[in-house]
Amino acid sequence: MSLLPTPPHSTLTVTSTIPASTTSLAAPRPAVILPGLGNNTGDYKDLVSTLREVYGVPSVVTKVSRVDWLRNAAGLLDPNYWRGTLRPRPVLDWYLERVDDAVAEAKQLLADDGKISLIGHSAGGWLARLYLEEFGASNISLLLTLGSPHSAPPKGLPGVIDQTRGLLDYVDKNCAPAVYTPELKYICFAGRYIRGARLVGNSKDTSNNLNPVDEEPNDSELIKDNGNKKSLSATPSLRARFIGQGYKQVCGEADVWGDGVVPEVSAHLEGALNISLDGVYHSPVGSDDTTRPWYGSPSVLEKWAHHLLT
What does DSSP say about strands 116-121 and 220-223: parallel, antiparallel, or unpaired? Predict the structure, then answer.
């Protein structure tokens, strides 16, 4: 089943597998992978291997080490950091320049004057939007984001602090809006691994399910696979309450579904083709390919790799 004919403003909740055999494997575009905050290049080696060996997609990971992220501490010297109005440059110049190097490397893999795909994981997704704005989109035909927070939390909520200190506000206000077109497709994936809970009291529906299949977001198409359902106690667990506090810092609410780090609602972007994946964890760090698969695990990759081939 192809997801592409779906209008770009809709949300899909997907649990079934879309085999690679349903798509054309002719001349796949090279892809550049943009690591998320705290991740390094090596975290994506299995994803690179699967993309190449199973789908024939050559890919380049932006060269980032964990220590490199300490460069962002330079923002502490900027008064705008403390005001919550931080701008991405020059604080993030190092990252954007590494992405541009990876794009140049990927272009060498092209057989002709074709274009490449950007795959942004976590913060790498909104940093990819910033890259397109600062360096241009002439060489890019697809931006695909995996668990990327695309909007800052609502302002004025007690105990909620914009962890990007204004950077996401800047992206929203200064980067071109997402418009899903044949020339440049925006596709944003969210994970529904666990529902968060309020720190005190019960959540709205007092349920706490992993790999949910029973809830449908508004205006969504749901493909159910009841074999994945796991029901737990109606009382929120400490884990759900802890994760809920993380969700609250991102979207302003605790009792929402998410991938364990980024809430589902935050990983979707207005104007993009937005797709939710049940049972998918946020990061390659701390994941496994069976009980806690992340966006790049082989079973999950089957659900989105075809977008790289069309």
Answer: unpaired
Whole-number Å distance between alpha carbons of 244 and 200: 11
Whole-angstrom distance, CA of residue 97 vs CA of residue 100: 5
Residue 271: Cβ-neighbour burial (10 angstroms; 0-12, 13-18, 19+)? middle
* pLDDT of residue 218 exceeding 80: no
- Under a CB-based contact definition with an 8 Å cutoff, are residues 297 and 290 in contact? no
Place of tokens 């309450």: 241
How many other CB atoms are found less than 10 A from the CB of residue 16?
A: 11
For residue 30 the two structure tokens come to 């090279």
pTM above 0.90, yes or no: no
Beta bridge partners of 194: 210, 258
Give tens-digit pLDDT for 152-176: 888 878 888 888 888 989 999 999 8
**Distance, CA of 111 to CA of 32 (rounded, Å):** 16
Provide the token pair at 235. Answer: 């009382």
Residue type, 249: Q
pLDDT at position 100, please? Answer: 97
Torsion angle (degrees, nearest 10) of CA 302, 303, 305, 308 = 160
Distance CA(39)–CA(77), nearest Å, equals 24
Tally Cβ neighbours within 10 Å of residue 206: 13
Segment among 17-21, 148-152, 179-183, 272-276 with least mean pLDDT: 17-21
- The b-or-e profile of 43-67 (16+ CB within 10 A means b, else e) is bbebbbebbeeebebbbbbbebeee
pLDDT tens digits, residue range 258-297? 999 999 999 999 999 999 999 999 999 999 988 999 999 9
Tell me how far apart the alpha carbons of residues 103 and 269 are, in angstroms, rounded to a whole number: 23
DSSP track, 161-211: --TTTTHHHHHHHHSPPP---SSSEEEEEEEESEE---SSS--SS----BS
Return the bridge partners of 223, or none. 14
Amino acid at residue number 49: S
